[in-house]
């Protein structure tokens, strides 16, 4: 084997890895939750019929102070409560990247989640 062929293989492997990672990122989509209406009390069924993938981004648009977005676990979703350590977004223009599996979101403003302002998104 020629001297330096091992490092040439390493460089080739690194380039291939970069191309593959770039391809994954290029395929991700940005979805505006609730479309034009934004994240509201009536946007709970917005995700029906859509196909999401890990790496896709959900854009939650809402009036700052009127709502929030809390990423919760399944128990928090069912009980409409934010477990300790849950990530809360409150800018009114929040971008959340989906993880593989089911991603759960609620609005923790009193009464909002119970009125249907929550969603479970499954990302393949």
Descriptive terms for the model:
7 strands, Immunoglobulin-like, three-stranded mixed beta sheet, 124 residues, alpha+beta, elongated, 26% strand
Roughly how many Å is the radius of gyration?
19 Å
Percentage beta strand = 25-35%
Helix content: 10-25%
The CATH C-level class name: Mainly Beta
Strand order of the largest sheet: 4-3-6-7
Number of domains: 1
General description of the model:
The protein is built from two helices and seven strands, in the order αβββαββββ. It has 124 residues and is an alpha+beta fold. It has a single domain (29-123), classed as Cupredoxins -  blue copper proteins (Immunoglobulin-like), CATH 2.60.40.420. The protein is elongated and about 65 Å long. The chain starts with a helix and ends with a strand. It comes from Lolium multiflorum (Italian ryegrass).
What is the fold's blueprint, element by element?
Elements: H1 5-27, E1 30-32, E2 57-61, E3 69-72, H2 74-79, E4 87-89, E5 93-97, E6 101-106, E7 118-123
Parallel strand pairs: 1-2
Antiparallel strand pairs: 2-5, 3-4, 3-6, 6-7
Short description:
The chain has 124 residues and is of the alpha+beta class. The protein has 2 helices and 7 strands, in the order αβββαββββ. Helix content is 23%, strand content 26%.
């Amino acid at each position: 084997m020629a001297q330096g062929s091992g490092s040439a293989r390493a460089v080739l492997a690194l380039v291939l890895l970069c191309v593959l990672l770039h391809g994954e990122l290029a395929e991700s989509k940005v979805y505006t939750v609730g479309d034009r209406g934004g994240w509201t009390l009536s946007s709970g069924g917005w995700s029906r019929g859509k196909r999401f993938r890990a790496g896709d981004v959900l854009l939650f648009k809402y009036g700052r102070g009127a709502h929030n977005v809390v990423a919760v676990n399944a128990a928090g979703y069912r009980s409409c409560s934010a477990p300790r350590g849950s990530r809360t977004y409150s800018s009114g223009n929040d971008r959340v990247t989906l993880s593989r599996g089911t991603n759960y979101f609620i609005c923790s403003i009193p009464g909002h989640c119970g009125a249907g302002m929550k969603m479970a998104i499954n990302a393949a």
